[in-house]
Amino acid sequence: MKAVVYNGPRDVSVNDVPDAKIERPTDVLVRITATNICGSDLHMYEGRTDFETGRTFGHENMGEVIEVGDGVDKVKVGERVVLPFNISCGFCKNCERGFTNYCLTTQPDPAAAGAAYGFAAMGPWAGGQAEMLRVPYGDHNCLRLGEDAQEKENDYVMLSDIFPTGYHATEMAGVVPGDSVVIYGAGPVGLMAALSATIKGAAKVMVVDRHPDRLRLAEQIGAIAVDDSTTDPVQFVLDQTMGLGADRGCECVGYQAHDPQGTEDPVMTLNRLVQSVRFTGGIGVVGVFLPQDPGGPDEMAQQGKVAFDYGLHWFKGQTMGNGQAPVKKYNRQLRDLIAAGKASPSFIVSHNLSLDQAPDAYQNFDERNDGWTKVILKPQQ
Ligand code: NAD
Ligand code: ZN
């Protein structure tokens, strides 16, 4: 089968690889119909995170079930399913408590937790930017879709990661109706956090970035766009909230954050959040920070350490939640909002491309070229 394979920093190609197949009785085999390129793929694509050459990318996957193992009794051949990027077992200590983002069974490294398709340090699992994908613990890891699965494919595929991830940011921040919310990052994840805050009834949503096309998408869903190349975002938020600061804040950039002048300073977004969220406010950090950042600007950054202003955070009595999103916790409800026509996350989709166009798509998305907001690869086209 064809698959998007990593050859080294900023080098992917579409190669022939061995077909995905059922390996255990609990596996489900899916013919991939839609698979997104994610900002998280760029950590590996750029070489910031080590990824084995020859491995397949792709953790935002959706498709049709074409085969099930003998131990699968819920998911049926022919059904359309969307797959949470977290691969989890459902029965370990963390999964039982709902933390499918930190599954202990599907992650072979005893010093780590959590697994994903096609991801560095997240287990050996192949990615779904391919014609087929093996889904472990298929009954647990497939979310079944209704008859509108194909018609709304560009919406439902967002349930694999970024819609629940954006929602998780707002959950960790504690967004409730009437809140003011500031979101750093208007990439796909930040825009999904903005959509989620709006769904939750936030009174005011402010989204900070510097790419005009992404800021326009934030405005399209009723958020206030803040261009930090021309505006001080902290002062802007204070001005919008009678000097108090926003009730909630979301970090949707991660350790590749930089200032508009190009200075690499990943911690800037965290400190700006601490400064622009009110006393006792909540902050949700879904942008990725890791114990290692080989490409970091100095030794401290390379060890994953950030000069975070904990003193001000403590003084303001703020809360902060962090980490991978537990997709399964939210994707059923978000699926039903899409089905009911009450949420349409596909407004961020800029490109629907064939698998063969992946190398060009990676380059454009990585360079954040104008108009390249979210790419969906369609391997069957
Ligand atoms: P992206 O790179 O497309 O978007 C990031 C955006 O942040 C860009 O538009 C960029 O211009 C902007 N930005 C850079 N520096 C900034 C700053 N200082 N202030 C404000 N905006 C700034 O990526 P994405 O797909 O939207 O993903 C965002 C982050 O979320 C990545 O780190 C990704 O790995 C992470 N992520 C986490 C999870 C999770 O489960 N926690 C899931 C998916 C993605
Ligand atoms: Zn992703």
Automatic annotation (TrEMBL):
The keyword Zinc applies. Residues 188-288 form the Alcohol dehydrogenase-like C-terminal domain. CDD domains: PFDH_like. Its cofactor is Zn(2+). Keywords: Metal-binding, NAD, Oxidoreductase, Zinc. Pfam families: ADH_N, ADH_zinc_N. InterPro entries: ADH-like_C, ADH-like_N, ADH_Zn_CS, GroES-like_sf, NAD(P)-bd_dom_sf. Residues 25-137 form the Alcohol dehydrogenase-like N-terminal domain. Belongs to the zinc-containing alcohol dehydrogenase family. This is Glutathione-independent formaldehyde dehydrogenase. It comes from Janibacter alittae.
